[in-house]
Amino acid sequence: MKKNIVITIARQYGSGGRTVGEMLANELGIHYYDKELTKLVSEDSGINEGLFLDNDEKIRKKGFLLSHINVYDGKVLGPSDPDFTSPDNLFALQANTIKRIAKTEACVIIGRAADFVLKDYDNVLSVFVHAPHDFLMEQAGKVQPFKGKELERFCEKEDTYRARYYRHHTGHLWTDAMNYDLCLDSSKLGFEKCVEAIKAHARVRFGEDVFD
């Protein structure tokens, strides 16, 4: 691939956004970053990976994301600062790694408010994958042991967390189409055509030879 294009994908739970991202990365022969990103942030920052994983669990269970909005501004605290391992600084360290990746390689990045972190990068295409309720439940039911109302509650909890996480760190609404370059309904397109739509948009935006 001649151009260093980064595709960020935000997605509703059950929409297949992660699957679309994996398919896209495999087809283009570029790296796919999801959970692996935590390991890279740990290596870049010198902070134990377990602390990042523990932090993810803590902010899910506690009201941290609801306590205030702290829009990421690019600042990172140093190791000597008492808040070096605070949730907001861990996000800032993660953002540093995302920026480093975006400068050095073409890739797909899932979640992490990467669209906002990279909003000033000209080589980034941001995507939001969504779908109607019934489709989300159908797809979620294929990978979760829950059914009926229990499955609905699980999906709602996941999306609420993602929305609060995005709102806290960006100050924006997660589902606002204005945050993204491209919004796709995976129930209408299917996963393969979502991949094709992203590629088509990239060709219009970055040039027909973007994937050569």
Descriptive account of the structure:
- With 212 residues, the protein is of the alpha/beta class.
- The chain has one domain: P-loop containing nucleotide triphosphate hydrolases (Rossmann fold, 3-Layer(aba) Sandwich).
- The protein has nine helices and five strands.
- The protein has helices spanning 17-28, 36-45, 49-61, 64-67, 87-104, 114-117, 133-141, 148-170, 186-206; strands at residues 6-11, 31-33, 107-110, 124-130, 182-185.
- The protein has a five-stranded parallel β-sheet, sandwiched between helices.
- Helix 1 (17-28) packs across helix 9 and helix 2 (36-45) packs across helix 5 (87-104).
- The N and C termini lie close together (5 Å).
- The mean pLDDT is 93.
Largest beta sheet: strand ordering: 2-3-1-4-5
Assembly status: single chain
Count of separate structural domains: 1
CATH fold group: Rossmann fold
Radius of gyration: 17 Å
Report the mean per-residue pLDDT as an integer: 93
Shape: globular
For the record, the CATH class is: Alpha Beta
Largest sheet: 5 strands, parallel
Low-confidence stretches: none
Give the termini distance in whole angstroms: 5 Å
**Tally of contiguous helical segments:** 9
Order of helices and strands: EHEHHHHEHEHHEH
Q: How many E strands?
A: 5
Structural class of the secondary elements? alpha/beta
CATH homologous superfamily annotation: P-loop containing nucleotide triphosphate hydrolases
Estimated share of beta-strand residues: 5-15%
